[in-house]
Amino acid sequence: MQHVCREAGVPDSVILLEDQSRTTLENLANIRALLARLEQPNIVIVTDRYHKWRALLVARHFGFQAQASCPRQSGTSGFRVVRSWLREVPALVYYWWRLRRLDKQSSG
């Protein structure tokens, strides 16, 4: 996505990469401290269109004022796109459930 941003003319100085995570939840949890130091609650998540709803759910859970930018997919097979959309439905439900459990654990 860094490459996509650069091609769109986004300067490197405003692109923050977090490369230690394996999941959307880890990624957004890991950037909280960095964005807090920058006093920056507003973020743009560059992701695939099918993944945007889950990314926004997690971002808003962590208090970010988030929006998503979904560049056009070029060269992606139709099978991969369909498979990805189908994967996101249960993933979105799972993340919603998991975030609710995290909220209950932290408040109780």
Report what the structure shows.
With 108 residues, the protein is mainly alpha-helical. It has four helices and two strands, in the order ααβαβα. It has one domain (2-107). Helix 3 runs parallel beside helix 4. The chain is flat and about 50 Å long.
Briefly characterize the structure.
With 108 residues, the protein is mostly helical.
Unreliable parts:
none
SSE pattern: HHEHEH
Helix content: 55-70%
Mean pLDDT: 87
Secondary structure: number of strands? 2
Write the layout of secondary structure elements.
Layout: H1 2-7, H2 24-37, E1 42-46, H3 52-61, E2 65-69, H4 78-107
Parallel strand pairs: 1-2
Provide the descriptors you would attach to this structure in a database record.
108 residues, mainly alpha, two-stranded parallel sheet, 4 helices, 9% strand
